[in-house]
Design goal:
The protein is an alpha+beta fold. The protein has seven helices and five strands. The termini are far apart. The mean pLDDT is 77.
Length: 239
């Protein structure tokens, strides 16, 4: 059987066609990456001017109702766990790529450009990086927000209990009274007088209460601390 002869001219045409096809593919890929990069940059820019949009043009039928929250619900969570709900431009942590990808998907599905992003997170995350759990929201309008993405670790299981004293003045006073009472019980009998009486106990208790209350008040004023209802949507450091 005779082998077919090689046509150099045909090979040249074939190679030229293949290179042209590969170049076209590379150009298309480069264009896709360029547009994707521009899309991601535009989202990052919107993070920095998040307070400019009070609502977004979502397609209602495409929204997941389990991800819709009213501002009153968010406020309750913030107060109970001493969190803040602020524009993303105040957020000092890093918003992960998963959140950006989620925004890209939502914008494509709803044929819109999302703006007005807000973050629900512990106070420190709005000043320095931390490892707790921020949650990204976009406003729907009329006080409703759509949960876009959550990342990081969950809150400590005792956080609600630990921040309970900072919820209001009543809780803080109750804690000071309890601590003062426990400290008074720890003082040895007869330390200040030879007789042990109820009057002496309550005098020591009042002394302890005033001392601990003074430390708490000084700490609050010195560091500019405030109660949870006053800081949940405050952008100021000393609150």
């Amino acid at each position: 059987m005779l082998l077919k002869r090689t046509n150099i001219e045909a090979l040249l045409y074939k190679a030229s066609s293949r290179e042209s096809s590969e170049e076209r593919i590379m150009n298309e890929v480069a264009e896709i990456l360029r547009k994707d990069g521009e899309h991601a940059q535009r989202i990052q820019d919107n993070f920095q001017k998040s307070g400019d949009a009070p609502w977004n043009d979502f397609e209602f039928d495409l929204l997941e109702t389990s991800r819709i929250f009213h501002l009153s619900q968010i406020r309750t969570i913030c107060i109970d766990y001493r969190l803040r709900f602020l524009d993303t431009r105040y957020f000092k942590g890093k918003i992960p790529e998963e959140a950006v990808s989620r925004i890209k998907t939502l914008e494509k599905e709803h044929n819109t450009v999302l703006k007005g992003f807000k973050i629900l997170a512990p106070s420190k995350l709005f000043k320095l990086e931390n490892k707790d759990d921020p949650i990204l929201f976009a406003p729907i309008g009329n006080g409703y927000f759509y949960l876009i993405h959550k990342w990081g670790n969950d809150l400590h299981p005792l956080r609600k209990l630990l921040v309970w004293p900072f919820k209001n003045i009543r809780n803080l006073t109750a804690l000071v009274v309890l601590v003062s009472y426990l400290v008074t019980l720890m003082i040895p009998n007869g330390l200040f007088s030879k007789s042990n009486s109820t009057v002496e106990f309550w005098i020591i208790f009042l002394f302890m209460f005033k001392s601990i209350a003074a430390v708490v008040i000084f700490y609050g004023f010195a560091l500019g601390k405030n109660f949870n209802p006053a800081i949940w949507n405050s952008k100021y450091f000393n609150s």
